[in-house]
């Protein structure tokens, strides 16, 4: 998509609003034409032979009416302009957010800081350009009409007035490449510092444990200095371009005034003509300056457009200007969740030959198949790097599968990323993300929840004792990414959030990474105390393995064995090693483990 195509689609979005906005600003910028004509009429009569008082009263009345009319037009145009600009910002940011959410696994091709600058600075760059196009028509009409009027009075002076337009346009075209380069450097430097700040908030504990505060501050200072230099270079160049344009216009204005004085001495130019030229030259200079600056903006806009398009998956970049409803002054309609109508409540989930390989790597999962019935508990286990988390992410569509199929109640799911979501499926990743909001909001995520349902999910997530230690209980602010909570509390908060969805299928990715053995044991007991709980869990803990109806043993991205714990302990060497290794890792009672193993055998 070229810049011209992008701007064309953008201006056609809410076309009626843009036309009204453009018409009002055209009227606003054109009204000074009448002021110049009134001044010409007034001064010609002052220097003439007329002795009527009307030549004093009429121009003053006309100028006053013009001024009041222009003020009224301004406020009306300003309201429509704000409305139009808000629509432009909303459609761009909404489409960009939708593009981000369509990425498998939300694996953006840019850091969070870089993404934020695209939502902020790059969108503002587009808004500034659209604003220029709104003013363009008014300045264009003023420039054309004023040129016609001035040519009829004196064409040589008018030619001198038009020449700066060509000079300014040429200069802005010559500086376009450097403008793009400085703009890109400024955006990238801003994205790096923003992303680093976000990483600092998410790694406070690691920084403190590693006593790396001085190194972190030093890197922050270095990145901030790089951003300062890039921003300074970009802003100075922009100011230089604007100053250059203005100086060209000022020099031209001076030459025009000298020519006017010479023509007046020759008797070919009246005082009224001089007043008209003087009145028009300021607005005409602004028109020429705007035209030149729009050329400069057009060059810079290529950078902003390319940066925003990066947030979309390959082949979807043009969806940046996909038209959709924007609700600025009214509440958006309730979203109808039709997934339950298309897909019945879970009875069976069948995976056939699921395969995914990481780009430029042999790692991934290959030919994974299993069948899960409602109410069953499937545990995926294996050594580190065996492909457990990759399997779960591929199943959920967070990674795009290369081969295989997923069936829900016998129906093939083409895009699991849009179907295996609440209320069908809920997922707790190994490293959950919390928002810098109260704990209550992190659990409910804005959903209406009564106290009974909220305490039920808190109980199932084994969090009731934690709430007693938190200063404000459920209303405690957890800080950026949950930094005020421990790793186990973050994991259980995310688990409570998952329970809140009341999904048919619950998927856990390695609860044992942050929970002690006893807490995880309580969690499974409370979860399965409710019948009909269908779960998939990545785990190596004996408590989970002992409760599993089906165990999937992964090794080097492939299924090494599948079956019950007793079957696998008898037939799978890998399962035997994992089970034996679990005795050293779990903190449970050894006698209880031995009794569990004897019962299973």
Q: Could you explain the architecture of this structure?
A:
The protein has 601 residues and is α/β, with parallel strands linked by helices. 63% of the residues lie in helices and 10% in strands. It folds into three domains: 3-315, ABC transporter transmembrane region fold (Up-down Bundle), CATH 1.20.1560.10; 346-424 and 505-601, Rossmann fold; 431-502, Rossmann fold. It is built from 22 helices and ten strands. β4 and β5 form a beta hairpin. The chain has a six-stranded mixed beta sheet, sandwiched between helices. Strands 2-1-4-5 form a four-stranded antiparallel beta sheet, covered by helices on one side. The two termini are 65 Å apart. The radius of gyration is 35 Å and the shape is elongated. Mean pLDDT is 79; it is low at 583-601.
Describe the structure in brief.
This protein has 601 residues and is an alpha/beta fold. 63% of the residues lie in helices and 10% in strands. It has 22 helices and ten strands.
CATH class of the largest domain: Mainly Alpha
Number of strands: 10
Q: Classify the fold: give the CATH topology of the largest domain.
A: ABC transporter transmembrane region fold
How many separate helices? 22
Structural class: alpha/beta
Distance between the termini: 65 Å
CATH superfamily of the largest domain, by name, is ABC transporter type 1, transmembrane domain
Strand order of the largest sheet: 6-7-8-3-9-10
